[in-house]
Amino acid sequence: MADARKIYSDTVIDHAMNPRNLGEIQNTDGFARVTGPCGDTMEIWLKVKNDTVGQATFFTDGCGPSTASGSMITEMAKGKSIGETLKISRQDVLTALGGLPEESEHCALLAANTLKAAVRDYMAMKREPWKKAYRRL
Predict the structure, then answer these.
(1) Residue 47's closest CA among 108, 116, 119, 124?
(2) pLDDT in tens, 91-117
């Protein structure tokens, strides 16, 4: 742990060791699964009411920084409007985590891209709700 503290902020370590919002949501309003350039996959589920994210959860098969990024971005999304959620960037995640080593910054990008894809899925389902019946999760 002492070595980890030399590389990662306390916030990264906390979110990696005690991830918030882990797991799937049944009857989700928005969902995305994205695989990043390093091979890590992240999934994000959204529950939305009145175009505001009420619940956001995630799962990743990735490393500690991926877990921390998924945990942080779902915390950041909760309570935000769909428009605000779409504006959450890789840099916002990095800032909220207190930074990541350069070789791990792609984890924040994976989280941001997965959140945006889940929001796009929500918007598509809102436009054509009949498609939700054909969703396989």
Answers:
(1) 119
(2) 999 999 999 999 999 999 999 999 999
Helices 90-97 and 64-77 cross at an angle (nearest 10°) of 110
- The domain of 112 spans 2-134
d(CA 79, CA 58): 16
Please give the helix or strand (H or E) that residue 23 lies within, else none. none
Q: What is the CATH number of the domain that holds 92?
A: 3.90.1010.10
Q: Count of domains in the chain?
A: 1
Q: How confident is the model at residue 135 (pLDDT cuts 50, 70, 90)?
A: low
Segment (H or E) for 104:
none
* Alpha carbon 53 to its chain's center: 12
Q: What is the pLDDT of residues 81-94, one digit of tens each?
A: 999 999 999 999 99
pLDDT given for residue 128 in this prediction:
81
Give 48's strand partners: 53
